[in-house]
Here is the input.
Amino acid sequence: MSAQSTSRVFLARLAGTAVFDPNGDPVGKVRDAVATLRTNNQPPRILGLVVEVPLRRQVFLPITRVTSIESGAVVITGLVNMQRFESRMGEHLVLGDLLNKSIVILESNEEVTVEDLGMDSNRTGDWFITRVHVIRRGKGIRRRGASSTLNWAEVRGFEAPDSEQGTSRLLATISNLRAADLAAVIQDLAHKRRVEVARSLDDERLADVLEEMDENERVALLIELEGERAADVLGEMDPDDAADLLREVGAERAQELIDLMEPEDAEDVLRLMTYEDYSAGGMMTTEPLIMSADDTVADALAVVRQSKISPALASQVFVTRQPLETPTGRFIGMVHYQRLLREPPATLLASLVDTDTQGLSPEATLNEVSSYLASYNLLSVPVVDANERLLGAVTVDDVLDHLLPENWRVDHRDNTRPELKNITIDEKDRV
Here is the structure.
């Protein structure tokens, strides 16, 4: 029976159920479900399941990935994200937060205790908690009262706290802002609300916001995050920004977070932390667009058009010998984006390389880097070691971050982003 056709699933009974992939191989066991409460006492939406995988790690499995819920088995599709699960603002663990909760039956105003919660799916495959199984208080010598199953609309008492509702409303208001503007709004919040909002953002979004925040503010915010969450967010940041941030949190805390990061992410960050902050090595990103001389124009354009690539990095590709990950093989040269647009798709990059642009050493100063960019009208400059291996690239926005005064973000927001003033923030939420 498919998940969509299952009439009802009671979640307390689902705990401990084995989870299998499409091939029948075991993935783990269900430990809980994640739901979000809605306004006007509407049935809560089920977001996903918390599954315990080997090594006792609990991960989040979106409910959209569940293809079948049967007696003794949950079948899923696709790969499982092995990032450790952490509940975020607006999310509730059904068994951990809602079970055994005291609520009230609306008709009789009788106080009862939640024993189980039943979820149903609609025609579109969305799941909602529609039933509440309750136990009444025993009377007289009876130790256990009668139990019954009620519709969600027949009870009250699950409402989210005011602070959580305030955060949810604020998130709904600012969710579509660009990262720089969202950072500006967050910095205007009181410390407690700022932390609540940060914890509610996904790792990639929070990483983008931290990259746009003032140095002191982002350090204070990172300190408030739990260790594994902080490490996951650092892993989503550009390595140079993550290295800058780790330099400011103290050596002991920095080492703790590095130990929790994925080895590949930690390696890039550690390499950058060996350089001075205002040097080419300290400012560079270790993830520029790198290709081989045998790649074609079509290959290069496919890489350049990726939405996650910043405009400064997309302005050129760096051509090197194998390996193509920093530190690479010998640096050959650059191919500019405009040149790619003028050549046939099958043209090899080897015939288009600009060999006049020489790389800077990682010890080059901020003044040397900015002068080089200005002299040759470049948006980024390669950084190479003594063996002519490409270590990374410094972009013009990295240089501007270091050239502008410390409070430039605040001045920019106040002077050129007046629309941010139209965002309503409760007075109690302001700094």
